Amino acid sequence: MLYRCLLVSILQAGMVASMPFSTRELERGHRPISSKTAVIAGHVLNNNGQAISAARVYAESSSITLGKLPIATSDDQGSFLIELPATGTYKVYASKEAEGYPDTGSLFHSTGFLSIPEVRVSQGEKVQGIVVQIGPKAARIIGQIMDVRTRHTIKNAQITLSRIESPNYTYSTGPDVNGSFNVLVPSAAFKMKVSAPGYDDWFYKSDDRQDDFIQLSSDTTKQIIVILQPKH
């Protein structure tokens, strides 16, 4: 409990600590780090202050547009350590989709309640005490995309979701090799479009045909079967 309170206090106060480190330093579960490398270290917590293990954590800089994103995975205590390719200012994001926590960098999934950590690092500096908050949990839509005549699944479709109140907040994905989809969605209302080569576009309509949008509560699931009509 003391450990959790300390982390929450750090989050509320916006405090981070920075310190130089040597090549002899060895973080738990990490290899020794070069003294020329900048590092960000911290914890991933959900909206209840609980540590989240196995979360995907990454740092992004607007000044670096090429190369792989610096990525880490949080350990059993929610701790992470990211080595950065260059000095500069980074925003730190996290996700754990398997447990319903979408990418905090996704505008489509944004709840508006999260504060994204922004960190300035110099060469050889280790910035500690960064708290990346995720949650509340998103909702989820699951289902399949099928041909109206053959009932065979369609694998090369594209699913496009867009928020009603902010149409520019969109998210695109596709089905898996079985033609099935499993997508995290926000509790805000959104529209759903499915397109595939050789088929007419499909737009979500409620069973009573009254609504053309979907709105779900947090941590709930809705099944949707998409039936596509071949173009004439």
What does this structure look like?
With 232 residues, the protein is mainly β. It has two domains: 2-134, Immunoglobulin-like (Sandwich); 139-228, Carboxypeptidase-like, regulatory domain (Immunoglobulin-like, Sandwich). The chain contains one helix and 15 strands. The protein has one helix at 2-13; strands spanning 17-20, 38-46, 56-60, 71-73, 79-84, 88-95, 118-121, 125-134, 139-147, 158-163, 170-173, 180-185, 190-195, 202-203, 221-228. The protein has a four-stranded mixed sheet with strand order 1-8-2-5. A four-stranded antiparallel sheet has the order 4-3-6-7, with no helix packed on it. The protein has a four-stranded antiparallel sheet with strand order 11-10-13-14, with no helix packed on it. It starts with a helix and ends with a strand.
